[in-house]
Amino acid sequence: MRPEILYPFFADTISLSGVGGRIASLLEKIIGRRVLDLFWHLPVDIIDRSACPDLADIKYDQVITVKVTIGKHDVPPRNVKRPYRVWCHDATGRLQLIFFHVKGDYIQRQLPEGEERLISGKVEIYNNQLQMTHPDYMLNPDQKAEIPGVEPVYPLTAGISTKVMAKIVRGALERLVELPEWQDKSLLKREDWPTWFDAMNMAHQPKNHIDLQVDSPARQRLAYDEFLANQLALEIMRQQNSRKKGRSLTAKGHLIQKLLDNLPYALTGAQVQSGAEIEQDLARPYAMMRLLQGDVGSGKTVVALLAMLVAVENGAQAAMIAPTEILSRQHYASLSEMTAGMDVKVAILTGRDKGKARAKLIDDLQSGNIDILVGTHALFQKDVIYHDLAFAVIDEQHRFGVEQRMALSSKSREGATMDVLAMTATPIPRTLTLTFYGDMDVSALHEKPPGRKSVDTRTIPLGRLDEVVQGLVRAIAGGTRAFWICPLVEESEVLDLAAAEERFRHLEQIFGPRVGLVHGRMKTKEKDAAMDRFVTGDIDILVATTVVEVGVDVPEATIMVIEHAERFGLSGLHQLRGRVGRGAEQSTCLLLYGNLRGEAAKSRLRIMRESDDGFVIAEEDLRLRGAGELLGTRQSGMPDFKVASLEEHGKLIAMARDDARLILGKDPELKGERGQALRILLYLFERDEGVRYLTSG
Ligand code: ADP
Ligand code: MG
Q1: Quick one: 131 and 200 in the same domain?
Q2: How many domains does the chain have?
Q3: Mean local confidence (pLDDT), 360-369
Q4: Does the CB atom of residue 294 touch ligand 1 within 6 A?
Q5: What percent of the chain has pLDDT over 70?
Q6: Residues near 328 by Cβ (< 8 Å), separated by ≥ 6?
Q7: Which of 126, 228, 332, 354 is most open to solvent, judged by the fewest CB atoms within 10 Å of its CB?
Q8: Structural domain contains residue 641
Q9: Three-class DSSP category at 292
Q10: How far, in Å, CA of 226 to CA of 238, rounded?
């Protein structure tokens, strides 16, 4: 239950004065619907109105606040398009106020000739004359207090002006109350951080540009609060998981040895190491929750198989779930191949299996005739009953939701919790594993199997597209296959699609019917079918928007063309490039670029040429990803932070992690005084999923 002290924070913004239905829905689009969402909406700039010069002393464009006497109005005749001007002056000089689209007698009423007014706004020097277009404030001299000396400037929502936005947030801040201190007092002292209440007010009322910086004490404090909430929540979940009684599965070795003997290669050091970590987890009498991270082609499948064999050696079953039909079939093929000649029965179940064959398979599963079942979501279906499922591997885990993980654990034998190995081919920087996967233990395959040829990566201006196509004609004639990835246009799927279709038709004219198209708007089945034609060699060129499935193996494909590569993020480019270089042939990745505006785009392409290590690239990606860049955290699947920035406050994460462990070590149920305050923190940042696992305090 949310603590009562927070209720006002979660009220609808419509409860704020000056916010009606229209403004509330404008706010909702970008910021949110609740008062608290406005708390996290921090200013990006300030307007300093403290300068009150004599008009004669103004030498450059600046924001000023001046007391003037209103002079003549220059009213444009009807049907004449020119602005409305009002002359005014102080003892030293003259200033012209300019208004566009004036309706009625508004200006006459606001600025009657001969009266004194306080005017604040940006003055500009034009033809040696002082002008101010649409002043921000026009008040009677006795209303001076209404003009703030320094005004925060908020990121805007279309339809809400700077002034209105500032006023709305000011209204929200009136709801702030002091909350019990959840941070360690000595930490606050050491870092010189204010209380949450003060930090909130300071962050919203910057006095100068230094206060706006991400490393200002107020912003650091707020960021740290958020990281601590994040780390506490993850740590609670992790402790909870690891306390769940599970099965102890110990490696007996007979199947594993056979597999190792069968493999045409030796495991890499990283594979051996990860395998050992997983084996240890399995042997413990608790539920396992481990993530195996490894770049495409790093050899995760065999590690997963080793782990599944531990379950099988114990007479139990294992399941491996992949997000798509094609991936499932590829896993099925490679698991079958690796276990050939062993007494291990591998089967596959996808949405495509129906009728008698499916009934038979489920029978075999239930009777324990099947040891390892590979498949899609179909594995979660109600009537899919296992004999004794003890271990599950989830490939491309980010593609699965929490509900699906829940559905999975309901498949284990009554009372038992299941061991889970999640896998991902999206390397993330070390600092971030904490925020992403803090609730899991992580193993990483940093090393690739030996003898891999790195993909020859080149950057080519789009102007040379014809040459690229000619080269492709020769390469296809030589028997290879190619991916052609089409650009992200704006952020619109419709436009993406139009561009992809256009390129498809263009290539079709040159290559005939052996060109296919796959895009995000296709149904899963159509997508799978198009991918399949490429996998089986029915087509030589696959034109695609960025939907190309991570993990799909087409060893014959040796060419990856990425159009407008400058528009892609680094990790996206790296993932796409990972589609080639999977066979024995030398592969090529052609990054076609259009307009290389920002430095960041240039750096991305350079890094792509220089490195093919997913972990290095992930670090660089984080470094380059400025807050203003198009690649928002949402798109990259990163967790959403409200005030903290992974790029700017990254150093605080590890600190928060240690803190969270220490706190829960001392007070695992968050029952003490600080514990109670920390519960409020968790609710404040809406990381309260874990709180219900704690006994109520
Ligand atoms: P991932 O799933 O991590 O992208 P895979 O498991 O599909 O990678 O492995 C990619 C390829 O590397 C497969 O063809 C596999 O047989 C091969 N491979 C895996 N481990 C090794 C190794 N230690 N030495 C040589 N080849 C390996
Ligand atoms: Mg894989």
Answers
A1: no
A2: 4
A3: 96
A4: yes
A5: 91
A6: 322, 348, 350, 374, 375, 376
A7: 354
A8: no
A9: strand
A10: 18
Asked if residue 345 and residue 467 are part of one domain, the reply reads no
Nearest residue (by CA) to ligand 1, atom 16, is 299
Both 464 and 545 in one domain: the answer is yes
Residue 296 Cα to ligand 2 middle (Å) = 7
58 in the same domain as 19:
no
In-domain check, residue 600 = yes
For residue 132, which of 79, 76, 77, 70 has the smallest C-alpha distance? 70
Q: Do residues 24 and 61 both lie within one domain?
A: no
The residue-averaged pLDDT of 256-270 equals 95
Domain that holds residue 19: 4-45+170-213
Regarding the beta carbon of 299 and ligand 1, being less than 6 Å apart is answered: yes
Res 403: pLDDT: 58
What ligand is nearest to the CA atom of residue 395?
2
Do 19 and 68 fall into the same domain? Answer: no
pLDDT over threshold 90, residue 478:
yes
Tell whether the model's pLDDT for residue 634 goes beyond 70. Answer: no
Relative to the CA of 294, which ligand 1 atom is closest?
3
For residue 63, the domain's CATH number is: 2.40.50.140
Q: Whose CA is closest to atom 18 on ligand 1? A: 299
Distance 253 CA to ligand 1 centre (A): 22
Cα separation values, 441 from 61, 64, 230, 280, Å: 57, 57, 16, 12
Q: What is the pLDDT of residues 432-459, one digit of tens each?
A: 676 667 667 889 998 888 877 889 999 9
Q: Residue 78's pLDDT is what?
A: 82
Atom of ligand 1 nearest to the CA of 267: 23
pLDDT at 400 over 80: no
Cβ-based burial of 287 (10 A; exposed 0-12, middle 13-18, buried ≥19): buried
On whether residue 86 sits in a domain, the answer given is: yes
Q: Which ligand is nearest to the CA of 297?
A: 1
Neighbours of 386 (CB within 10 A): 20
The predicted model gives 238-259 an average pLDDT of 86
User: Residue 305: inside a domain, yes or no?
Assistant: yes
Percentage of the chain beyond pLDDT 90 is 59
